[in-house]
Amino acid sequence: MLYAVSRSGADLGIEPTFGAVKLKYDKLSLTDRYSINALAIAVKRDYGGCDVLINNAGVYYYKENIAAAQRKETLDVNYRGTLAVLLIVGSTYILQRMAHN
Questions:
Q1: pTM (predicted TM-score)
Q2: 39 is in which domain, residue-wise?
Q3: How far apart are CA 28 and CA 40, in angstroms?
Q4: Helix (H, G, I), strand (E, B) or coil at 28
């Protein structure tokens, strides 16, 4: 199962072109810990956990001087949110692997 997540959870109508891979669209906001937890719980419940995590999310403002709120958003998404996903999904992965040993 391949999850394609975004803040809106929109189905982009993309079909995988390799093997028997199924694509599932879902919502995820890197700045919302409840959103991260909800997705991690759903993946664990429905598929036993996550084996591979690819993060392509990011915020970038195309100007030299940005406001404090924009700097905060950039750090919240690009660093803090990514770290939260890694900690939450990673801990689930580690526990999953420990259970199989």
A1: 0.77
A2: 2-99
A3: 10
A4: coil
